[in-house]
Design brief:
The structure holds 2 protein chains of 2 kinds. Chain A has 19 helices and 2 strands. By secondary structure, chain A is mainly alpha-helical. In chain A, helix 7 packs antiparallel against helix 8 and helix 18 packs antiparallel against helix 19. Chain B has a 5-stranded mixed beta sheet with strand order 3-2-1-5-8. A 3-stranded mixed beta sheet of chain B has the order 4-10-9, with helices on one face. In chain B, strands 6-7 form a two-stranded antiparallel sheet. Classes of the chains: A mainly alpha, B alpha+beta.
């Protein structure tokens, strides 16, 4: 067989149903990644709109643009949306899903149908959470949802029930997605891709996924406790019956701080992808950076109580958590210097993706330095719950997590769409978002020190806060303009962009070895990896071509991809991957409907739909790959 | 350069002392001074660190055509920089910071030992006001805490409902008020004055307008205030009893509820609605007649009274000196 025929055969084997139905039943990690991308973009727009409404209310002292109730709902949904419906699904769902198999030389994720289920559950939980606005009872006790304020006694509507049930289902989606990424990274790496040759992006995603599966159970348990207390009269947080409101906080932050690293680690991974490409050399201190990424995730589990330094917990506890919080700085400084040294040793081409990474480094360092201040207990006790914290974590979450995402969107746009974005517009969008971010979030440090507390729907005139707040609001709209320019650039370039070709930036990792956009089967021949930057490894790529000619490692007997050993990535068996399936979306639909019945306390009906969800598993497993 | 200018802004501000009277960096006590000193030192080191990072990034841009570090050094030197500045230096600096802040400074903000204070005041958080009771006295007030200047005052902080957080930035750290717990805080004011604070933990609709004032007075003045506030009121009013006694207390009368503040000496207070408005006749009129407009969502209902009754009621509460 000739090469062309082999490729045609692969095309035929991996073809999915066309049209909308194809998107609903797809198990292709790239299409699922794209579904994740656009869905999370919609949520990002919603969360951004919420932020702009809040900033409008806060532009002036004692304003009455929003009622306190509306403000509290917007504030809560802004946090919940940005964390659970934008950043996590965008990084692990969209970027992780699309790129990890391509970077490790696999043809799909380890569990393609589970991957689809993870997306549909996530979409269902988002629809569930946002339907709360339709009845005017969106979650309103803050994203941190402290009890007793979130208990029925003080919060009688369905607001908090939407929150708790929505996050339980969202957590299930994230857990499934994280497990899938872990197994994929452990077992589906291309032959020869031992740990020391795995892209740092995949290390970052691995670290974030490991954090997710260990952190989410704490939040899920917390939300289950809360619903049991709200709906069925249990007493987990009730002092009069031996409960404790601090239980909520411990469990919440046991999730909530690892969460911060879950948010930024993939962003670090994007930075360590973009920097070598544009600096035109490999990362300095590669193994150190890989270890630092895993170390951040690990130490991240020992710092949660630094969110509770004002609760009056004992000094011994304070000191322990302060020490751990300081330790977590070191893996981050390692990475910052490794990025900077790579830029200095290389011959960097400051195109838009690298400019966003430059902005990211500046913002991350500001957010990191203000972060260290919270590990000094007395300063934490003065500044916590003020706008100083709001400034700090927006520099981290927007500056350090979203900026690399924006750079990453430009960087991989040609790969995903096959077309180039507009470089000139992209640079403009960088400067707009950079200035917007600085104007929005930097003055928050100052008003925080001047005593402005967080989570206030308004503030009194005469405290010296007015001008800063006005600047922040103006900055918010500048930032929004920058983001809209990015959206415009993307949408226009989808049609009008120049054809990009396989490898427009001369990237180092495997995704640049395949056509843009990549075919359904990703790799016509499974690549054999001999270094950490295989696309810069011309001889190994030529060897792949010869294998394709010989029909070696082409694996066209079905939906096939090789499984390899965990450490050295030696091929052990050829896996038969499942084809498209209607069952994931059906299962997710049943779960989502049951969530609505749980919400309205129709427990029997809810149980019925959950049973239906379990029954769909029978259909799911009725046709196993390899039996077709 | 603009970034550096931005970073120096808070310095200029604090020196200028502008920023109302809720400024973390304008300390009026030993505890808060130790916090703000710690902050300024960290801020100084942070500026240097930040400048160094920006310099390295800038250097990478300037030398974008040179594939080496200045002096032609290569990867080995770069790795040494990563280890030196990324590992060794942070460990040294952070250890020093840890020992100074978390072993030494932390003591000055710690809860005061029992018996180490000259006066104990019980402050209870309510949605959305502060109840203030003086130990060994019958004095009760709300939203303003009178203390003698230069005296170690111990606060015992609790809540009647949800979690609140007591914070007067110029006097000390903040401490949460949590159901089932009694947290303690030291309050010392070095100079007489009025120190503003506000609730720092989100506590519902009117978290924004839940402020408090600490009024530090010379000792004799404070003693006189305390003695006056310990007395019940001799004045009774039927309108008040009918419309207000379900929620408020006026000691010496039949009104004994605890939903809203004790009003026994209401007219002598500086502010209304937890430091939301100055206590003037006009503001009081607006507040009584339409509390839901002044502070939407607060627990005080809008009542339907005739104009004559409103005026009589206002006259009565204005007489509670």
């Amino acid at each position: 067989m000739a090469v062309v025929e082999r490729i045609e055969h692969l095309e035929e084997l991996w073809l999915e149903r066309p049209g909308v139905l194809g998107w609903l039943t797809t198990v292709d990690h790239k299409r699922i990644g794209i579904l994740y991308f656009w869905t999370t973009i919609v949520f990002f727009a919603a969360g951004g709109t919420e932020a702009l409404l809040m900033r409008t209310q806060l532009a002036q002292a004692d304003a009455r643009v929003l009622s306190p109730e509306t403000y509290d709902q917007l504030m809560t949904m802004h946090g919940v949306t940005m964390i659970f419906f934008f950043i996590i699904p965008m990084t692990t769902g969209a970027f992780g899903n699309y790129l990890v198999p391509l970077m490790i030389g696999a043809r799909d994720m380890a569990f393609p149908r589970l991957n689809a289920l993870s997306f549909w559950l996530f979409a269902g939980s988002g629809i569930f959470m946002y339907s709360s606005f339709l009845i005017g009872e969106a979650p309103n006790a803050g994203w941190f949802d402290y009890v007793p304020l979130a208990l029925r006694q003080y919060n009688g509507g369905l607001n908090v029930d939407f929150y708790a049930l929505g996050l339980i289902f969202n957590g299930a989606a994230s857990t499934i997605g994280a497990l899938n990424l872990i197994v994929t990274i452990f077992k589906l790496r291309a032959p020869g891709m031992s740990w020391n040759r795995m892209p740092l992006f995949c290390f970052a995603l691995l670290a974030a996924s490991l954090s997710l599966i260990f952190a989410l159970p704490a939040l899920t348990a917390d939300c289950i406790f809360l619903e049991l207390q709200r709906k069925l009269g249990f007493h987990f947080f009730d002092v009069a019956h031996g409960g404790d409101p601090l239980l909520w906080q411990h469990l919440f932050w046991l999730f909530g701080h690892p969460e911060v690293y879950i948010i930024v680690l993939p962003a670090f991974g994007i930075a360590t992808s973009i920097i070598p490409t544009f600096a035109r050399r490999r990362m300095v201190a590669f193994p150190l950076v890989a270890m630092a990424e895993l170390l951040v995730a690990f130490i991240g589990f020992g710092v949660w109580a630094h969110h509770m330094f004002a609760t009056g917990i004992s000094t011994a506890t304070l000191v322990f958590f302060a020490a751990a919080s300081m330790m977590v700085v070191v893996p981050s400084t390692i990475q910052v210097y490794a990025w900077l040294m790579t830029v200095n040793l290389g011959t960097p081409d400051f195109r838009a993706p690298l400019m966003f990474i430059g902005g990211f480094i500046i913002f991350f360092v500001i957010g990191g330095l203000s972060g260290i201040m919270f590990a000094a207990v007395p300063v934490d006790q003065a500044t916590t719950d003020t706008y100083f914290v709001v400034a700090h974590f927006h520099f981290i979450i927007f500056g350090a997590a979203v900026f690399p995402l924006l750079g990453g969107i430009y960087y991989w746009f040609p790969k995903v769409t096959g077309r180039m974005y507009d470089e000139r517009l992209a640079r403009w969008s960088f400067w707009l978002t950079f200035v917007g971010t600085s104007l929005t979030f930097f003055p928050m440090h100052i008003v925080g020190l001047l005593g402005m507390t967080r989570r206030v729907y308004t503030y009194r005139h005469g405290l010296g806060w007015d001008a800063y707040n006005l600047v922040e609001t103006i900055g918010g709209f500048v930032l929004a303009a920058g983001l809209l320019l990015i959206a415009f650039n993307i949408v226009r370039s989808l049609r009008a962009g120049e054809l990009a070709g396989r490898d427009p930036f001369h990237g180092g990792t495997l995704e640049w070895t395949v056509p843009s956009p990549p075919p359904h089967y990703n790799f016509a021949v499974i690549p054999t990896v001999t270094s950490a930057y295989p696309n810069w490894d011309a001889r190994a790529r030529e060897a792949d071509l010869r294998r394709l000619e010989r029909g070696e490692l082409v694996l066209d007997g079905g939906h096939e991809t090789p499984a390899t050993t965990v450490n050295d990535a030696q091929v052990t068996e050829i896996l038969e991957m499942p084809p498209e399936s209607p069952w994931p979306i059906v299962l997710a639909l049943a779960v989502t409907i049951s969530a609505f019945f749980l919400l309205t306390e129709h427990y029997a009906t809810a149980a019925g739909f959950l049973t239906l969800a379990v029954l769909t598993l029978a259909g799911w497993h009725a046709q196993e790959p390899g039996e077709a | 350069m603009t970034r550096v200018a931005l970073l120096v802004l808070p310095l200029v501000l604090a020196v200028a002392g502008c920023g109302g009277n809720q400024n973390t960096l304008d300390p009026a006590s030993h505890a808060e001074r130790s916090i703000s000193n710690l902050f300024w030192v960290m801020f100084g080191v942070a500026i240097v660190g930040f400048a160094f990072i920006v310099f390295l990034l800038f250097l990478g841009w300037v030398r974008r055509e040179q594939p080496s570090l200045p002096g032609g050094r290569g990867e080995a030197a770069a790795t040494r920089i990563v280890l030196g500045f990324g590992v060794a230096l942070p460990i040294v600096l952070l250890s020093a910071l840890f020992i100074w802040s978390d072993f030494f400074v932390v003591r000055s903000t710690a809860a005061p030992a029992k018996g180490s204070t000259a006066l104990t005041i019980h402050v209870t958080g309510h949605q959305w006001w502060w109840e203030v009771r003086y130990e060994n006295s019958t004095a009760v007030t709300a939203n303003e805490i009178h203390i003698p200047v230069g005296t170690r005052v111990g606060l015992v902080l609790t809540t009647a409902d949800v979690i609140h957080s007591f914070w007067v930035p110029e006097l000390n750290r903040k401490v949460d008020m949590i159901p089932g717990r009694e947290n303690r805080l030291l309050l010392v004011a070095d100079h007489p004055g009025i120190y503003r604070g506000q609730c720092a933990e989100f506590c519902g609709l009117q978290h924004a307008y839940m402020a408090v004032e600490v009024i530090a007075q010379p000792k004799a003045q404070f003693e006189a205030w305390l003695a006056h506030n310990a007395q019940p009121s001799a004045r009774r009013d039927a309108l008040f009893a009918e419309n207000c006694s379900g929620c408020h207390e006026v000691r010496g009368t039949t009104a004994h509820a605890d939903v809203g503040p004790d009003l026994t000496h209401f007219a002598s207070r500086r502010t209304l609605a937890a430091v939301t408005l100055p206590n003037t006749p006009k503001n009081l009129r607006d507040w009584l007649r339409d509390p839901q407009h002044v502070k939407p969502g607060n627990r005080m209902p809008n009542l339907e009274l005739s104009d004559a009754d409103w005026r009589a009621l206002q006259r009565y509460v204005e007489s509670l000196r």
